[in-house]
Design a protein that fits this description.
The chain is an alpha+beta fold. The protein has a single domain (about 5-109), classed as Folate-binding superfamily (Folate-binding fold). It is about 15% helix and about 30% strand. It has 2 helices and 6 strands. The protein has helices at about 35-45, 90-100, and strands at about 5, 10-15, 20-25, 50-55, 65-70, 75-80. The chain has a 4-stranded antiparallel β-sheet with strand order 3-4-5-6, with helices on one face. The protein has a two-stranded antiparallel sheet with strand order 1-2. A hairpin with a 5-residue loop joins β5 and β6. The longest helix is centred in the C-terminal third of the chain and has 10 residues, at about 90-100. The radius of gyration is 15 Å and the shape is globular. The two termini are about 25 Å apart.
């Protein structure tokens, strides 16, 4: 079972208390963008086997959105952080790199 800690209220919640929101750190496109850019935003998502950055909502708690870094294979959670953060915090990147030698965030694109 996946357990994430909400960075806002500090509650450790299992996945039944949370709502997934898909890939984190996407560049959003809307009205006025090219058809190709909007199509890419809507349909093209990374779905890596391994480290992934995701959006989650503490649906049955404080209700706030946050980001989580986790491994899709082992369900290992590297950390959670504010949804207002545009890039993963350096301490989480360092934790991932320490546990996954050879991993680089650039390889997730």
């Amino acid at each position: 079972m996946l357990i994430l800690e909400c960075p806002y209220c500090g509650v450790k919640a299992d996945e039944t208390e949370l709502h997934p929101g898909g890939e984190a750190h996407l560049t959003r496109f809307g009205p006025g963008s090219s058809d190709d850019a909007f199509e890419s935003y809507l349909f093209m998502r990374a779905n890596p086997k391994g480290v992934h950055f995701e959006r989650w909502r503490h649906a049955h708690g404080c209700g706030k959105w946050f980001h989580a870094a986790r491994c899709t294979v082992t369900l290992e959670v590297f950390g959670t952080y504010s949804a207002q953060t545009t890039e993963p915090p350096s301490d989480i990147i360092e934790k991932i790199a320490a546990r996954r030698p050879g991993w680089a965030k650039e390889s997730q694109a």
